[in-house]
Design goal:
It is rod-shaped, with a radius of gyration of 35 Å. 62% of the residues lie in helices and 6% in strands. Helix 1 crosses helix 5, helix 2 packs antiparallel against helix 3 and helix 4 runs antiparallel to helix 5. The strands form two sheets. The protein has a three-stranded mixed sheet, with no helix packed on it. Strands 2-5 form a two-stranded antiparallel ribbon. The protein has three domains: 156 residues, no CATH class; 40 residues, no CATH class; 63 residues, CBS-domain (Roll), CATH 3.10.580.10. It is mostly helical. The protein contains eleven helices and five strands, in the order H-H-H-H-H-H-H-H-H-H-E-E-H-E-E-E.
Length: 288
């Protein structure tokens, strides 16, 4: 009787241990399904090349596993389903059928779905890098079943595509990373303006970049650089000032404001005595 009692007790603890392992395994597969499959190849390649030293190390471990996305997805789902299906079998030997169903649903929902996915959604990179060797072993174990299904998915849905940003999406992404967006970005206003301007460059024409002549501040070539005019030039804030002859639309050149530093307003030097540079011109409709 004592031997039989010890055997029953040993079987009880073995079943409890198996149940705990199945719940942990199912939770790990569920969390990895969310954590690994939510990372695009572009994100991982960016982290592998320009992330922090720790992120580079983690991304380098995950990339070989994630490259075949459908094979990885099938492997994780097969392992998760196998663990969840096996759990009621071991519970049924300890409690009644209704108890087994209730306990298995509770354990799977709480410890196999909610908690693992919450953790992996926040720390998926680190966790994925840690268990990457285990996942590779599971891929080989499930390969006979997972590979045909993954090839079918490749045929029906196409291979895992690289999700590159379009020009407008990239511009919005840059704006969100600006420190003015209030989302913790490190880019300054000037940096976001320069990057956004470079992205828009191919869509802009010379006309879009020009300022209407009616809104420009121009200087008459016959004017004198007295205190009033010098004050207007400084107030305008530009590094170059267009110079016109007779009427404002007849622009003949420009002067560099830095060349006026040696001129005293009291001398009232004529504008025509200052070096006037040729202004770049764009001739619309001209033929080469």
């Amino acid at each position: 009787m004592a031997v039989e009692y010890k055997c029953c007790e040993a079987d009880f603890f073995i079943h409890i241990l198996i149940i705990v392992l199945l719940v942990v395994f199912a939770g790990m597969m569920s969390g990895l399904t969310l954590g690994l499959m939510s990372m695009s190849l572009v994100d991982l390649e960016v982290l592998a090349k320009s992330g922090t030293p720790k992120d580079r190390k983690h991304a380098a471990k995950i990339l070989p596993v994630v490259k075949k996305q459908h094979l990885l997805l099938c492997t994780l789902l097969i392992c998760n389903a196998a663990a969840m299906e096996a759990l009621p079998i071991f519970l049924d030997s300890l409690v009644t059928a209704w108890g087994a169903i209730l306990i298995s649903v509770t354990l799977i929902l709480l410890f196999g779905e909610i908690i693992p996915q919450s953790v992996c959604s926040r720390h998926g990179l680190a966790i994925g890098a840690t268990v990457a060797p285990i996942v590779q072993v599971l891929v080989w174990i499930c390969f006979p079943v997972a590979y045909p299904i993954s090839k079918l998915l490749d045929f029906l849905l196409g291979h895992g595509h690289v999700a590159l940003f379009r020009r407008a999406e990239l511009k919005t992404l840059v704006n969100l990373h600006g420190n003015e967006a209030g989302k913790g970005g490190e880019l300054t206003h000037d940096e976001t303006t320069i990057i956004a301007g470079a992205l828009e460059l191919t869509e802009k024409t010379a006309k879009d970049a020009m300022t209407p002549i009616s809104e420009t501040f121009t200087i008459d070539i016959h004017a004198k650089l007295d205190r009033e005019l010098m004050g207007l030039i400084l107030e305008n804030g530009h590094s170059r000032m267009p110079v016109y002859y007779e009427h404002p639309t007849n622009i003949i050149g420009l002067i560099l404001v830095k060349n006026l530093l040696t001129i005293h307003p009291e001398d009232e030097v004529p504008v025509k005595s200052v070096t006037i540079r040729r202004i770049p011109r764009s001739l619309a409709g001209s033929e080469s």
